[in-house]
Design brief:
Family: Belongs to the peptidase M8 family.
Strand content: 15-25%
GO biological process, one term: cell adhesion
Largest sheet: 4 strands, mixed
Keywords: Hydrolase, Metal-binding, Metalloprotease, Protease, Signal, Zinc
GO molecular function: metal ion binding; metalloendopeptidase activity
Order of helices and strands: HHHHEEHEHEEEEEEEHEEHH
CATH architecture of the largest domain: Roll
Low-confidence stretches: 3-7, 38-67, 89-94
CATH topology of the largest domain: Elastase, domain 1
Number of helices: 9
CATH class of the largest domain: Alpha Beta
Structural class: alpha+beta
Organism: Bagarius yarrelli (Goonch)
Mean pLDDT: 79
Amino acid sequence: MVYFPVPILLLLLMVCVWGKCIFDEVQSSVPVLSPPNDHPNPFDWFFRDDDVKVSAIKQQDWLTHARIQNRQKEISHYSHSQKLNHAVKKRTDIIDTPQPIRIKTWSPQESHVFLQPETLRLDAAFSDAISIVSKLFAVWRGKKKLLLNRDINKYCRFIWKNSTSANFNKCGRARDNYRTESCLGVTIPDDHLSGCVVHPHPDQPDRKVIKPDGAGLPDTDVLVYVTTQSTDKCRADSSVLAYSAHCQSNSEGRPVAGAIIICRESLSINGFSHEHLVQTVIHELLHVLGFSKELFSKWTDRSISAQSKLIG
């Protein structure tokens, strides 16, 4: 993700001055699910020839490894400007240029039972907040529809752990009582989730589909589940207007799904302020996007200047 100047972001994180922020408490109780780590990250492919698409470190075929080594030696003789141009070409070969982040929201059916004025206030606040945040952040967009992951530890009874077997780290038996995934208490629809399969034999290609792939979400970089409730956390402290957490990330660690709980009391007509609600939603969106003490250490500099230092 491309971030804008730190002072602006710090200011946005501090806008929730009308309510108490309990993000750290909430996030610590929410497990974050990432894709299976069974293939190299595309950013490992730094010295990349047109027909060499794997990391030299992870490539087992010695001929391809030798070709990459030769390519590295060739690049080592480039001038600084040539190295920088190569870094630019490498990035454009793998992904597009950063584009404004596309944030989509989804609400469960049961959250639509409150009064129409409350619904209109909430929709208007999220529309304004997303419009502001989308202008501040850019991401390298995925080519496919967004599909969230299923937790293998939930749907699988046991996993093949013999490293010499063909189906190492894959599910061998499914749990009978598995249904679906959730994010901060919100049930994720099957349409938003990738499928899951089991491999009955450790070395045979036969597999059984337990859940097929869902339809996925087009034109989506981050999916936010939104619900309005009067939860225990809302009732315990009237200064809590909303809270949030991220629950899934992509292979690079960027959050791609999270949830925001809006305390229903904050939508009541008494003392309601559209401006305050918009700023509260912006604050929670920033947490969903990865502004948390757990993820600060995982931030990476993806600028061209940083890439040029790696080969300089």
